[in-house]
Amino acid sequence: MHLAITGFGPFGDHEENVTAVLAKEAEEPPDHSLAKKVLGVSFRGLEKRYLRWLDRENPDAILHLGLAADSGVIRLERMASRFGDDRERKGPPIQLAGPAGLETAVDLHRLASKLRRRGLPATQSLHAGTYLCNFIYYLSLRWLEERGRTGRALFVHLPHSTEEIVKLSVRSDRCYASLPYEMLEQAVRMSLAEVASLAEAAQDS
Question: Which CATH number does the domain housing residue 185 bear?
Fold first, then answer.
C-alpha cells in the first residue's frame, strides 16, 4: 500500500507550523510506503499542483494534518465542503466541482476512543472549516472517489506543540493552547495506521 501525508507551512503570525515537521518526520507504517508533502498556505495554483502530485504518487489513502491554533485537543474532521473562502482575494466563495460535501470513511468514533485510551485528548468534528484545510481535504476525497477509493482520507487538526509555544512565549506575550510534541507524534502515527487499515480492508473486500 502506498500512503500519503501532508502538512502546511507557516502562515500569518505563526512562524512555525508543527504539522510541516510532523509530516516530514512521519514514519512509514510496516509494509507501506509513504509520500510526504508540505503545502503552502495559499490558494494560488494549489489545486493544479496538488492534483498533479496526487496523480504522480497515486496513493491508496491520505492523511492530512492542519494547525488549529485556538484548540488544545486533536480534532478528527468528518467531512469537507466544495465551498471555500479565499481570504487573499475579494469576491464570491470558491466552488469546486463535485458534490456539496464528501465524507471520510474512517470510523472517527473508534479512532477518537483509541486516542483517548492512550491519554491523547481527541474529539470528532463535523467539518474542516472553509479555508485551505477544507479545500485540500475535499480535493483528496474527490480524487480518491473518482478512482474507486471512496472516503480513504482523513484530516486531523492539531494544536501547537508545547515546545514551540514555550519558545514563542519567551519572545512575545502570545499564548496558545498546546500539546507536547511527543503526543502529537503519537496521534499522527495512530491516525496514519487507521487510514492504512481502511485501505487494506477495502482492498481485501
Answer: 3.40.630.20
